[in-house]
Design goal:
With about 575 residues, the chain is α+β, with helices and mostly antiparallel strands. The chain has four domains: about 5-75, Elongation Factor Tu (Ef-tu), domain 3 (Beta Barrel); about 110-180, OB fold (Dihydrolipoamide Acetyltransferase, E2P) (Beta Barrel); about 195-430, P-loop containing nucleotide triphosphate hydrolases (Rossmann fold, 3-Layer(aba) Sandwich); about 445-575, Bovine Mitochondrial F1-atpase, Atp Synthase Beta Chain, Chain D, domain 3 (Bovine Mitochondrial F1-ATPase, ATP Synthase Beta Chain, Chain D, domain3, Orthogonal Bundle), CATH 1.10.1140. The chain is built from 16 helices and 26 strands. The structure holds adenosine-5'-triphosphate and magnesium ion (MG).
């Protein structure tokens, strides 16, 4: 990279440096600073003074050391071979997964050599997004080499099938050479042709989400929860089991050992649909609590840029970021050091704009090349003291489609995932209901609302039951309380640690939910026939309570059989 012209450091304040002698430098321009050439971005410019944030530890940096302006914004290099790798917030490879030894300077991912097969003919008129060739890697999905945004014209030359690295020209389009890789500025959304609002569900494999508060592919959601309520576990479950083509997992200011464990688990687990290791569809961006704070700031934009790159190939890409509160802490530190006027609780005044710029990059689009692709964003927010009115939590709620609230009482009672069904919401649920109706499950909407009304009715009755005792309630109400227990234990609770239950297919979800509703229906009928409430309450529902564990993750038929046996046994109570 040719970096010109040369300036110098005049002040160092933590990760923020003041630079003189870079006359034409622009806001968000990429800079390298000091003898170690630490990478950074310009935040403000004032006459001859530029203030930049650096993405590395600045200990030892002194006044007078040189600085270079890049002449372009901070970019990442996108290409084949990213999947399965671990990088920092600037997409620099981390050499050791256990220690997260981070690199210096702007090193690039080791793209390596890849087998390229041409798919375009010389003389063809190519536009951005058109297919140039395919790279055969161990990666799945297939890696498409596309004309990058901004390049168009006649294909003058194309490389024959063979093995190439990122320095070799694989095609010449209207006089411009292209390689297997391309650069993209992280803060700028990649272009697309059209945005769509009709969408298929983003299947998480977690019943409480898929049934009660589902989101669509191309949508966004955030998990809000206090300390230790299960945010990381839930996000890791999504990284493992959701039905995405590519997962970009951002560990942002969280514990390094959690990420190391996740990488180990993803390596050992196989994808049920492809039979291949789950790590092969995953890219991990690590900026754990022991790494320089500032690279967190860039990491979520890097993640969404990588996601858009795969979206453009026609993939369903998902960003999972744990946690955006730690990301916002970096914003707050910057605000205090640059002297920006702080707004709420010390966060910079543009915090809402920064959050919006990130979440708005989720979506389902027709790509510039005419493919159908999505970027889904799922994040966590860990507000101090579980306070939902705190700035990061309250602004995030405005920009996401779904809010998944963790409940302290549920977590304390070891009801996992501890998602509150009364305070969580999804703005996608009507659209998902229509999708189910059109795709073979017309009862989905009715099942969901019956489960919701059972839960709501039980919440109301529990207060009364505590005052007067359960036995004082009429039988229908006692049966609501009984079924409420079944909804919670059979449908909503799901163990991340049980291999049959960690993920649940949509048909098995439907079967479990229907089984509980059928039991409720049967119990009401038996009550009407004179079977006492206490007899129904003492009935052994064990087979149903164990059904999620005793059947495989996709064994809906197994659940249906267990439920049929159980309701038949219940009917014998009447005789
Ligand atoms: N789905 C689940 N199945 C089983 N156990 C769970 C589940 N979710 C959470 N737990 C339990 O709760 C503990 C804390 O969860 P986790 O680390 O995900 O919380 P967190 O909200 O990320 O915490 P922190 O605020 O410290 O980041 C886990 O170690 C595990 O024992
Ligand atoms: Mg956590």
């Amino acid at each position: 990279m040719d970096l010109n012209p040369r300036g110098r450091i005049v002040r160092v304040n933590g990760p923020v440096v003041h630079l003189a002698g870079l006359p034409d430098v622009a806001r968000f321009e990429y800079v390298e600073v000091g003898d170690r050439r630490l990478p950074g971005e310009v935040l403000t410019v004032d006459h001859d003074l530029a203030i930049a944030e650096l993405y590395e530890y600045t200990g030892g940096l002194t006044v007078g050391e040189p600085a270079w302006a890049g002449g372009h914004p901070l970019t990442v290099e996108l290409g084949p071979g990213l999947l399965g790798g671990i990088y920092d917030g600037l997409l620099r490879p981390l050499s050791d997964a256990d220690e997260f030894l981070y690199p210096r300077g702007l090193t690039r991912p080791p793209i390596g050599r890849h087998r390229f097969e041409p798919d375009a003919t010389i003389g063809a008129d190519l536009a951005p997004g058109d297919l140039v060739g395919t790279v055969r890697t161990a990666d799945r999905p297939e890696h498409l080499v596309l004309v990058p945004p901004g390049l168009a014209g006649k294909l003058e030359q194309i490389a024959p099938a063979g093995s190439y690295d990122s320095s070799e020209t694989i095609a010449t389009i209207a006089g411009t050479e292209m390689t297997l890789t391309s650069e993209w500025p992280i803060r700028q959304p990649r272009p697309y042709r059209e945005r769509h609002h009709d969408r298929a569900p983003f299947v998480t494999g977690q019943r409480v989400l898929d049934i009660l508060e589902p989101i669509a592919k191309g949508s966004s959601a955030t998990v809000i929860g206090g300390f230790g309520e299960g945010k990381t576990m839930l996000l890791e479950q999504l990284a493992k089991w959701s039905d995405a083509d590519v997962i970009i997992y951002v560990g942002c200011g969280e514990r390094g050992n959690e990420l190391a464990d996740l990488i180990g688990e993803l390596t050992d687990l196989t994808d049920p649909t492809t039979g291949r290791s789950l790590v092969e569809r995953t890219i991990i961006l690590a900026n754990t609590s022991n790494m320089p704070v500032m690279a967190r700031e860039a990491s979520i934009y890097t993640a969404v840029t990588v996601a858009e790159y795969f979206r453009d190939m026609g993939c369903h890409a998902v960003i999972i970021a744990d946690s955006t509160s730690r990301w916002a802490e970096a914003q707050r530190e910057l605000a205090s050091r640059t002297g920006a006027i702080p707004a709420e609780q010390g966060y910079p005044a543009d915090l809402p704009a920064a959050l919006a710029a990130f979440y708005q990059r989720a979506g389902r689009v027709t790509t510039v090349g005419g493919r159908d692709g999505t970027v889904t964003i799922v994040t966590s927010v860990s507000p101090p003291g579980g306070d939902l009115t705190e700035p990061v939590a309250s602004h995030t709620q405005r920009f996401v489609q779904a809010l998944w609230v963790l409940d302290r009482d549920l977590a304390y009672a070891r009801h996992y995932p501890a998602i509150s069904w009364s305070t969580s919401f999804s703005r996608d649920s009507d659209a998902i209901g229509r999708w189910h109706a059109a795709n073979g499950d017309p009862d989905w909407v009715a099942r969901r609302s019956r489960l919701q009304s059972l839960l709501a009715e039980a919440a109301r009755l529990q207060g009364i039951a505590e005052l007067v005792g359960v036995t004082a309630l009429p039988i229908e109400e006692r049966l609501v309380l009984l079924s409420n227990r079944l909804v919670r234990e059979v449908v909503l609770q799901q163990s991340a640690l049980n291999k049959n239950d960690a993920s649940c297919s949509l048909p098995k979800q439907a079967a479990l939910a229907q089984a509980v509703l059928d039991v409720h229906h049967t119990a009401l009928a038996l009550g009407n026939e004179g079977v006492p409430a206490s007899v129904l309450e003492d009935f052994d529902f064990g087979p149903l309570l164990r059904a999620k564990d005793s059947t495989g993750p996709d064994d809906a038929a197994g659940v249906v059989a267990i439920a049929a046996g159980l309701t038949e046994a219940m009917r014998r109570l009447a005789s």
